[in-house]
Design goal:
Two copies of one chain form a homodimer.
Chain A lengths: L5 H15 L7 H8 L3 H13 L3 E4 L5 E4 L8 H9 L22 H16 L4 H5 L2
Antiparallel strand pairs in A: 1-2
Helix pairs in contact in A: 1-3, 1-4, 2-3
Chain A binds a DNA duplex through helix 3.
Amino acid sequence: MKLITRDTDYAIRALNYIVCNEGRTISITELVKELDTPKPFLRKILQLLGINGILKSYKGKNGGFRLAREPKEIFLLDLMQIFQGKFKISECIFKKNTCPNQEHCLLKSEIDSIEKIVFEKISVITLKSLQKK
Amino acid sequence: MKLITRDTDYAIRALNYIVCNEGRTISITELVKELDTPKPFLRKILQLLGINGILKSYKGKNGGFRLAREPKEIFLLDLMQIFQGKFKISECIFKKNTCPNQEHCLLKSEIDSIEKIVFEKISVITLKSLQKK
DNA sequence: ACAAATGACACTATTAATGTATCATTATTC
DNA sequence: GAATAATGATACATTAATAGTGTCATTTGT
């Protein structure tokens, strides 16, 4: 079970580096050196971050990326949404009737309640909150 | 993101049906009719439940499966363990240094704390708790 | 003009999840 | 004791999700 996939992970690391170097424009080339990630993959990821308004991109020589928002406004959930789609712990199971008790079975509500808790916990995490301390 | 995979799901449904029909030996053939799952897949699943001491199996004509333990002793976590391996929300990310703050970054501890909560929530769910009410 | 960067986007590879098939063994029934 | 209906063991196949690559176009600084 993966709460966070590789692309979200790379995105966080890249953003993390960019935050630590605010004021400069950071190129993929530089990021790849720092993060040791596959270059074309990282390009795709950064492009998506651009499209989704997390980063601003600058073309041409000396180009690269800068933050488009403040770190405190970049939520982990945003990134997960971009790379992993809408946050959802699990689909409903028990679609078919196999037991008279089943309609009242607790599994769905248990899962829902777990999902809610995880969501609440995750939804406060921002790029900024990952920095401080 | 899937908390529970298809095989765990089928296993729960099958066990659920078996619980609701305790006293009888239930064959795959009967289960497939009830649950509308692929037969060979369900066979594999039930076999694993047998190997792992959740079910007792009876070969030969009129054979099938019965519970090997009481429903209150069959934990969702047991099933997840069997079909999905050790419970783990996510691997540690941020393996490489990209920022001086990073070693103290909160992501790992956030994930760990989420994992802990989910684990606690899930660990009380048993086949029995899925039945009542 | 050239080099170094991103934009757009199609393609490929790998892995995990899901599902199938087959032959052997066991037990019941006639 | 043969037929039937079940599981045991195990290898194989398919599908979907994840991860990663490649290419051509465009932009910009020197």
